[in-house]
Amino acid sequence: MVTSKSKKLEPNICWRCGVLLNSRTTQSAIQCKVCNRSFHRKCYLTDTGIGKDDVQSCVCCLCGVLRLPYPPRIQENSLAVKFLRDGYCVISLSNNPKEKKILLETLEKFRVNAERYFNAFMRSYENELEFSTKVPSLESGFSNFRERGKGRFELISSEIEKEVQSLLKKSKLLWNTLDLLLTPASRRVREAKKVMSAGCFYSLPGSSLQNLHTDGPSLSSVKDLYPYAVNVFIPLVPFDKTNGTEFFPGSHRIEWQSIDPQKRKSKIPTIPLGMALLFDYRVLHRGLRNQRGSPRPCYYTTVVRSWYKDKFNFSLARYRTTLNVPSYLLENRKGESMRKKRKTE
Fold first, then answer.
1. Which one, of 232, 182, 222, lies nearest residue 63 by Cα?
2. Distance CA 169, CA 111 (A)
3. Which of 126, 242, 280, 321 has the most Cβ atoms closer than 10 angstroms to its Cβ?
4. Same domain for 320 and 261
5. Where is the Phorbol-ester/DAG-type domain (predicted)?
6. Are 125 and 324 in contact (CB under 8 A)?
7. pTM of the predicted protein model
8. In tens digits, what is the pLDDT along the chain, a chain of 345 residues?
């Protein structure tokens, strides 16, 4: 972290990996045309999804360097301050009593929907296995259905995406916070945000404990940058230490590497229904084993800066096959038949 007064650039280093550039590597280095920071050719814009010739600015300009004190607009939002410090925060989707009642009813409806969607995907996969020997395993995954650890599934469909959008579109506090986190870059380079993905994580009872991981790398080992991607989790059942997500606060920051490993403490946020969990792509975390006797469905979306492309978690090369799920399996046929019955009466 730097202060607002530190304007002098570091010695001749690569601003991605932090290695000093010698006379040989300096000649082949790429220099940002906006801020004049230097990068190894292999480091410049790596892991961003941007071609090296597509833009003239570096990740420091595209994201913005974190400086203390934060700008007043960020200081006024305590959730944004906590997010930048810890790498995550929990935010209410609605503070209006009437709206919250409707929200809780909607979350219960979507919980039932998520169970139906999971059963539809699983049934479709089992049907594929019956008729073909070339079906990918769920571990290797489909573009819309995969197993991320024993008993932990990811589902992606247009139905789920619409439901996620309906939950988030009215939450002004959430979008205001995302605006602060994802659009604070230098006035010289101002990038908008976009929704990159949406889906459902479905954890069965007894699901495995995930390995500690980040969803994306730090884009600079020299200075802390503002986030380039933020995950938004919307639990459809309450989250706690029996089924939630464990985080290592501050692990997205450069200073984390200098902390004694024995002093690195984790936290498991409690998330009641009606709340959302926002966390940085770079923060260390893992999904806990589901110790409850019922599934743990969680809707999610990932909001990113407009230039960012995740070519690992959502790679077409990695997930080449799409599982065909018949629409009739996804539909609420009981609800549809009830509506038709009311029309005829």
1. 182
2. 19
3. 280
4. yes
5. 1-58
6. no
7. 0.91
8. 554 444 455 568 999 999 999 988 999 999 999 999 999 999 999 999 998 777 779 999 999 999 999 999 999 999 999 999 999 999 999 999 999 999 999 999 999 999 999 999 999 999 999 998 889 999 999 999 999 999 999 999 999 999 999 999 989 999 999 999 998 655 556 667 899 999 999 999 999 999 999 999 999 999 999 999 999 999 999 999 999 999 999 999 999 999 998 899 999 999 999 999 999 999 999 999 999 999 999 999 999 999 999 987 766 667 789 999 999 999 987 655 544 444 555
